[in-house]
Amino acid sequence: MSDGLVIVDKPPGWTSHDVVGRVRRLAGTRKVGHAGTLDPMATGVLVLGVDRATRLLGHLMLTEKEYAATIRLGASTNTDDAEGEASGGGDATHLGRADVESVLPKLRGTIEQVPSTVSAIKVDGKRAYARARAGEAVELQARTVHINRLEIVDARSAPPYLDVDVAVACSSGTYVRALARDIGSVLGVGAHLTALRRTRVGPFGLDTARTLEGLADDFAVLDIGAAARSAFEVVTLDEESARMVRHGRPLHDTRLPGEAPVAMFGPDGAFLALYEQRGEIAKAVAVFG
């Protein structure tokens, strides 16, 4: 099995670890990982790496993500989604689309967001969700995230609730459940997610995602070189520089574009490494060639 990425359209009810286990069996290797967890309730794009491509995943996790979500105003839960237990809320029948639109500007741009209690963030070495489910009081610190897009797609009255479909584009580390919670809090009626579908991770969208059933019939990976070209800016090296990059040596006479890691390719088209600019020197982040 070649090194590369597998873009899965995760089904509902599966954990990200469940999907990794299934792909391990299909790929015939234990070396499979994923970039960015999806909750069991959520569906959509889950990026997996096979063999050497697992080393790309940490860098892919830093890219922007897009979601389609449904928020139910008028009820809060202890998990901020439909899988939790009711924890309050108020009648939302007096609210309309315009009321929700009025609070969205406060949640766009760079904001400080308190993650949902049942998140995968570690608190003293233990996942927050594990502590919460064990009955412990969990207090998480606010984190800086960026919301590029938060728009209403549709709104439907469902007394005593108001259901709102939204489109979200956000930085890594953003919790859409927390956005729902905060919208409900500002409007004073509580809220939680009833549906969440991730539609894009970096350059990988639903148009490139495969179902697990489809992968079982025809398992194929996106070659590691093609994956690197899709996800990162590319620099093609001459033979002398390629020889240095294969050994992870710093490049003193190369100015890389931007601040993010750049995919370095040899003159023969082989993917060699990820490098990033550090001051006047380009240094290796991960070497593959």
UniProtKB/TrEMBL annotation:
<dbReference type="InterPro" id="IPR002501">
    <property type="entry name" value="PsdUridine_synth_N"/>
</dbReference>
<keyword id="KW-0413">Isomerase</keyword>
<protein>
    <recommendedName>
        <fullName>tRNA pseudouridine synthase B</fullName>
        <ecNumber>5.4.99.25</ecNumber>
    </recommendedName>
</protein>
<dbReference type="GO" id="GO:0003723">
    <property type="term" value="F:RNA binding"/>
</dbReference>
<dbReference type="GO" id="GO:1990481">
    <property type="term" value="P:mRNA pseudouridine synthesis"/>
</dbReference>
<feature type="domain" description="Pseudouridine synthase II N-terminal">
    <location>
        <begin position="24"/>
        <end position="176"/>
    </location>
</feature>
<dbReference type="Pfam" id="PF16198">
    <property type="entry name" value="TruB_C_2"/>
</dbReference>
<dbReference type="GO" id="GO:0031119">
    <property type="term" value="P:tRNA pseudouridine synthesis"/>
</dbReference>
<dbReference type="InterPro" id="IPR014780">
    <property type="entry name" value="tRNA_psdUridine_synth_TruB"/>
</dbReference>
<comment type="function">
    <text>Responsible for synthesis of pseudouridine from uracil-55 in the psi GC loop of transfer RNAs.</text>
</comment>
<dbReference type="GO" id="GO:0160148">
    <property type="term" value="F:tRNA pseudouridine(55) synthase activity"/>
</dbReference>
<feature type="active site" description="Nucleophile">
    <location>
        <position position="39"/>
    </location>
</feature>
<dbReference type="InterPro" id="IPR036974">
    <property type="entry name" value="PUA_sf"/>
</dbReference>
<dbReference type="InterPro" id="IPR015947">
    <property type="entry name" value="PUA-like_sf"/>
</dbReference>
<dbReference type="Pfam" id="PF01509">
    <property type="entry name" value="TruB_N"/>
</dbReference>
<keyword id="KW-0819">tRNA processing</keyword>
<feature type="domain" description="tRNA pseudouridine synthase II TruB subfamily 2 C-terminal">
    <location>
        <begin position="232"/>
        <end position="288"/>
    </location>
</feature>
<dbReference type="InterPro" id="IPR015225">
    <property type="entry name" value="tRNA_psdUridine_synth_fam2_C"/>
</dbReference>
<feature type="domain" description="tRNA pseudouridylate synthase B C-terminal">
    <location>
        <begin position="177"/>
        <end position="221"/>
    </location>
</feature>
<comment type="similarity">
    <text>Belongs to the pseudouridine synthase TruB family. Type 1 subfamily.</text>
</comment>
<dbReference type="Pfam" id="PF09142">
    <property type="entry name" value="TruB_C"/>
</dbReference>
<dbReference type="InterPro" id="IPR020103">
    <property type="entry name" value="PsdUridine_synth_cat_dom_sf"/>
</dbReference>
<dbReference type="InterPro" id="IPR032819">
    <property type="entry name" value="TruB_C"/>
</dbReference>
